[in-house]
Write a structure and sequence with these properties.
With about 450 residues, the chain is of the alpha+beta class. It is built from ten helices and eleven strands. A hairpin with a 2-residue loop joins β3 and β4. It is an enzyme of class 2 (transferase).
């Protein structure tokens, strides 16, 4: 039980450490095996090859030094000049003798990172000399100074580092690190392009979902991403054709119904009158007129919706416009809104939507209050994943009777009208328009006592 919980926690921690983006993940996929591989190679190289080389080089220098020490000790002091000259020429070791000196031991920090040279030289010298000695790697960057304590003085040996050390040792490290950097650089550049193509596709899908006309996208990136892009284009085309066809068909039906309806109204007017049929004729006329109103309302909506393109427009200006129109017909409309709120919209459609809502409020109430504000979309980040997305929220409040909570959803149904002269299309059309913009609309209780229509549009 406990173990399972720990495992889950570990999994969560690991997932938290993993980069979330595709770019980060794919670079990780390339880098992790390479770094592991190189670590293994480095371990093999340093653990095997380097040790052997380093020990052999140190052994060579230590052997020469031991031989020279032996020579200096055994030969007469007048021969020393000859020994020193020969060692410089033939062994590349510079010697100096300090008569009567004593070796001072000072602790020195290691000066060569990563390489075991110092230790190897000390071990090799100790094995061969068995005399007190001291090595100095700090005084000269190109050589190492070995001091050996002889009975009557100190022998200084200056050996070039080249004899102990090969630059390829560092080159190998540089090669490993350099190739890792190069590879990740190349991976980042290539993956960035792939990720950009995917991100564009995601943005296009998002925009299309919000009812913004984006046109066909250019397929780019790897063949799978291209394929997704082309599939998206085909889907977009099919949906557009389907919506267009539907709108056209409904507009056609509404249009074609008008002629027989007109004929019916005329025929009713021509019918012989009489007190016994008067009431039925009046009801019949009313029905036909209602049908005419409905088809006309639907027709004007369908005609507008089919062709209008989304473009940046100021929502606040639209709201003020519609409110001013409503005031002209005698309604008391207040507007509370920011300076401006520009966003991609189909202005005529939004105007019709707001008009329907304000018209409804005007029919049922005396006071109307319209508010515009922006609210953050809960839990949603923008296409770049950085900034928060916003809703533009418009509320239309009135102080009328309102609609009981249970009947609010039903009021959106087409041709569902509570008034004898209504078409029942007002709210249905308003919702259709808002949803085509990627938003939604809801009916609530208003703080003014009547109905509140709250609609949200993605900014
Ligand atoms: N502001 C409002 N206050 C009270 N009732 C409303 C309000 N708005 C709409 N309604 C009710 O919802 C019904 C549907 O409205 P709508 O779809 O606009 O059709 P219509 O206005 O043509 O009847 C209305 O008939 C009315 O009964
Ligand atoms: Mg209405």
């Amino acid at each position: 039980m406990r173990r399972a919980g720990n495992g889950r926690r570990l999994g969560r921690v690991l997932r938290g450490l993993l980069p979330r983006g595709l770019l980060g993940r794919s670079v990780l996929i390339i880098l992790v095996p390479m770094v592991v591989l190189q670590a293994v190679a480095l371990q093999l190289f340093y653990g095997g090859h380097l040790d052997v080389i380093s020990r052999r080089l140190a052994g060579g220098v230590a052997g020469d030094v031991a031989m020279l020490v032996e020579l200096v000790r055994r030969e007469e002091p007048e021969n020393r000049a000859w020994i020193f000259r020969e060692s410089l020429w033939k062994l590349d070791l510079a010697l100096a003798y300090e008569e009567g000196a004593r070796l001072q031991f000072v602790a020195r920090p290691a000066s060569l990172p990563l390489l075991p040279l110092e230790e190897d030289l000390n071990t090799a010298l100790w094995e061969r000399l068995r005399l007190p000695f001291d090595t100095d790697w700090q005084s000269d960057p190109r050589s190492v100074i070995i001091r050996v304590q002889l009975p009557e003085g100190v022998l200084h040996v200056e050996a070039p580092r080249k004899r102990l050390f090969s630059a390829t040792l560092y080159l190998f490290v540089i090669w490993l690190v350099g190739s890792a950097l190069l590879l990740s650089g190349v991976a980042i550049v290539f993956m960035k392009n792939q990720v950009r193509a995917l991100r564009r596709l995601a943005d296009a899908a998002e925009a299309f979902g919000l009812g913004r006309d984006i046109g066909a996208i250019k397929p780019e990136g790897a063949s799978e991403v291209r394929q997704a892009g082309m599939a998206f284009n085909r889907m977009q085309e099919r949906i557009r054709r389907f919506v267009g066809q539907r709108t056209e068909m409904l507009a056609g039906i509404s249009h074609d119904l008008r002629t027989p309806l007109t004929r019916m109204r005329l025929a009713i007017a021509m019918l012989p009158r009489g007190p016994e049929v008067e009431e039925d004729l009046a009801a019949l006329t009313q029905d036909v007129e209602e049908m005419e109103r409905m088809t006309a309302a639907y027709l004007s909506f369908a005609r507008g919706e089919g062709t209008e393109q989304s473009r940046p427009a100021d929502l606040v200006e639209l709201v003020r416009d519609v409110a001013a129109n409503a005031r002209r017909t005698g309604a008391a409309v207040e507007v509370a809104a920011p300076e401006a709120l520009t966003m991609p919209l189909r202005p005529d459609a939004v105007r019709r939507c707001l008009g329907n809502l304000i018209d409804n409020a005007g029919r049922h109430a005396r006071r109307i209050a319209v508010g515009v504000r922006t609210v953050p979309r809960a839990g949603e980040a923008g296409p770049g994943g950085v900034e928060k997305l916003l809703w533009a929220e418009v509320t239309v409040d009135d102080d009328g009777p309102g609609i009981p909570a249970a009947e609010r959803e039903g009021a959106f149904r087409p041709f569902h009208s509570g008034s004898p002269d209504g078409t029942g299309l007002g709210l249905a059309i308003a919702r259709d328009i808002v949803r085509a913009h990627g938003g939604d609309i809801a009916l609530e209780e208003s703080p003014l006592g009547g109905l509140r229509a709250r609609l949200r549009l993605p900014v």
